[in-house]
Design brief:
The chain contains 12 helices and 18 strands. By secondary structure, it is an alpha/beta fold. Strand 7 and strand 8 form a beta hairpin. The strands form 4 sheets. Strands 3-6-2-1-9-11-12-10 form an 8-stranded mixed β-sheet, sandwiched between helices. The structure holds adenosine-5'-diphosphate (ADP), aspartic acid and magnesium ion (MG).
């Protein structure tokens, strides 16, 4: 069997954990399997690199940030190769350039396009464990790129697809995918399995346990993912195309503080204004999430929408500089907001899911600022300080149970 295993930052956070991971990989290797291991930077190293960079220059170039980031995962793979060697097993570390993991050139948020598998196969043929840096790629000119925070999961799934691996295992600091972040919702339960669509929705809506792009890739290439703990042998969660259990109305709750609410106030109430506003944002590559338009009065209306926090200022600038001043009165920005969502493929055939969620929020005295729904989710915007309380309320409302 060819197995791709990925270990996150906490799992390789210190010497003891590095040896723990080395032993787990060696166990599979000694059974005769080919083993490819993707590693993240140790502990909080990526955050520390950001702090270091900002101390030198508060506005560092994205290219140099990616150059800096790659040192984090490179440290992990090199130390791991040394640990395996110490334990008497041959291993080789490779970075994105050495493998040749080709990506787009969008620094900080690149997408993998093509992975050369020749070098990896060559090393596996020599019966080595192959250690690959997570989260990085190279662009057309061999500049290093990174795939976005949490992107090592995506490296693992992309490798599993390219190598046609028999298994893709993602090891982390919790035992699998839960009905909500177990650090925020104490009643959260581990799921035995979850569909790609549900996992994709949860990951996109803030469940950081998997990078959402990794789920997208897994779905596209039919890679089954197992999420499990690096610290014990408990059975994890399988992410796959269809689950055998009966379709649940709701499968999980997610919270995301990375949201900002922009309100364009006193917009002229005439046809085409919304089109012009959102067309302007689209042309500037600004992704808009929840949209709310107030009922018009006195010839004007308010249009509110959310964007990610890092886009808030740019969004305001784009509107101020390009949207005719005569078309609106003012812009208001609120960054202390969070999204709380409930996700489940069964929602489409069960009316009343939203009402049940709103009731739970009401019972806990949480004010809803905006609402958005789709066939597979209900999302509300709340004040940031209410996020955990709202996640717990939503979770309670559906008595989300695993099985
Ligand atoms: P790694 O470094 O291994 O990639 P991450 O911190 O990226 O680990 O992801 C694991 C974390 O994801 C957990 O510690 C947990 O707090 C968080 N998390 C958020 N939502 C969920 C969820 N639904 N199920 C499990 N963990 C979740
Ligand atoms: N080290 C990177 C990060 O902290 C990538 C990852 O962990 O997946 O975001
Ligand atoms: Mg992660």
């Amino acid at each position: 069997m060819l197995i791709v295993k990925k270990f996150g930052g906490t799992s390789v956070g210190d010497k003891e954990r590095i040896f723990n991971v080395a032993r787990r990989c060696i166990e599979d290797y000694k059974k005769g399997n080919d083993v490819v291991v993707v590693l993240s930077a140790m502990g909080k190293m990526t955050d520390e690199l950001i702090a270091q960079a900002k101390d030198i220059n508060p506005n560092p170039s994205k290219r140099e940030m990616d150059m800096l980031f790659t040192t984090g995962e490179q440290t992990s793979v090199a130390l791991m190769a040394m640990a395996m060697d110490y334990l008497g097993v041959p291993a080789v570390s490779l970075n994105a350039f050495q493998v040749a993991m080709h990506s787009t050139n969008k620094y900080g948020n690149a997408r993998l396009k093509r992975i050369d598998t020749e070098r990896i196969h060559h090393e596996l043929d020599q019966r080595k464990i192959v250690l690959v840096t997570g989260f990085q790629g190279i662009d057309h000119y061999n500049n290093y790129t990174t795939l976005g925070r949490g992107g090592s999961d995506t490296t693992a799934v992309a490798l599993a697809a390219a190598l046609r691996a028999d298994a893709c295992e993602i090891y982390t600091d919790v035992e699998g995918v839960y009905t909500a972040d177990p650090r925020k919702v104490k009643d959260a339960r581990k799921l035995k399995e979850i569909t790609y669509n549900e996992m994709l929705e949860l990951a996109t809506l803030g469940a950081g346990v998997l990078h959402n792009r990794c789920v997208e890739l897994a779905k596209k290439h039919g890679v089954q993912i197992v999420v499990r703990s690096s610290l014990n042998t408990a059975e994890g969660t399988i992410v796959k195309s269809a689950t055998s259990t009966e379709e649940k109305v709701a499968v999980g709750v997610a919270g995301d503080k990375d949201a900002a609410r922009i309100a364009v106030l006193g917009v002229k109430n005439e046809p085409g204004v919304a089109f012009k506003l959102f067309n302007l944002l689209a042309r500037n590559n600004i992704n808009v999430d929840i949209i709310l338009q107030s009922v018009g009065r006195d010839g004007t209306k308010d249009i509110s929408f959310t964007v990610t926090e890092d886009m808030a200022q740019e969004t305001v600038d784009v509107i101020r500089n390009n949207f005719a001043r005569s078309k609106y009165k003012d812009i208001d920005v609120q960054t202390k907001v969070a999204k709380v969502s409930i996700v489940g493929a069964g929602m489409v055939s069960h009316p009343g899911v939203a009402a049940k969620m709103f009731q739970a929020l009401y019972e806990d005295g949480i004010n809803i600022r905006m609402i958005s729904t789709s066939e597979i989710r209900v999302t509300v915007l709340v004040n940031e300080e209410d996020m955990e309380k709202a996640m717990n309320a939503a979770h309670r409302a559906f008595q989300l149970e695993a099985e």
